[in-house]
Amino acid sequence: MLTIALTKGRILKETLPLLEQVGITPEEDIAASRKLVFATNRSDVRLVILRGSDVPTFVQFGTADVGVSGKDVIMEHGGNGFYEPLDLKIARCRLMTATVKGRDDINARLRVATKYVNIARHYYAEQGRQVELIKLYGAMELAPIMELADEIVDIVDTGNTLKANGLEARETIADISSRLIVNKASMKLNHAPIQQLISDLAAVV
Ligand code: PRP
Using an 8 Å Cβ cutoff, are 5 and 67 in contact? Predict the structure, then answer.
């Protein structure tokens, strides 16, 4: 049995057509169900639907053999325990710093609010900038407006969310897209079907 962990939401919507093109379709409408585990047309493949930030963890521990995860989430997780053999080129966006439009950095020691604390720690350290990190779980855009922080580190797609809140993007930390990730032990033990899945997906990406 091959267990594939998928990220619910926008990534899922873009992943299902890819899986369909390689001959894997869920037995029922995932969007219309509260279930978390789904059988597929292939008796040897099942899907589990997770929060994005949990996909690398399930694959790291081999609970899922394979996963589809945003590069942002993979970077924040650190990537231990799995390979990242394929860029699926879906859910593309950028991970950026942002702040209030027109605001200059006045503080020597920046306060940065983000859910990507590991990425942010690494990014600012590389630049030799001292920052105080504040972990948030959503609505990061509020932090600079309400003066909880000087900057945020967040995903920017259309830029509409920043604009609607009077913010502007500053620096790009990374270009993001979703990646296929594979548990290291599964890659050895279940080599043939996983290698087939990777090459089939590579052909349709
Ligand atoms: C992301 C991100 C921004 C928004 C950017 O949030 O945190 O808020 O999308 O997209 P835009 O540039 O097209 O406006 P998402 O809607 O994924 O929800 P989340 O905060 O739960 O991650």
Answer: yes
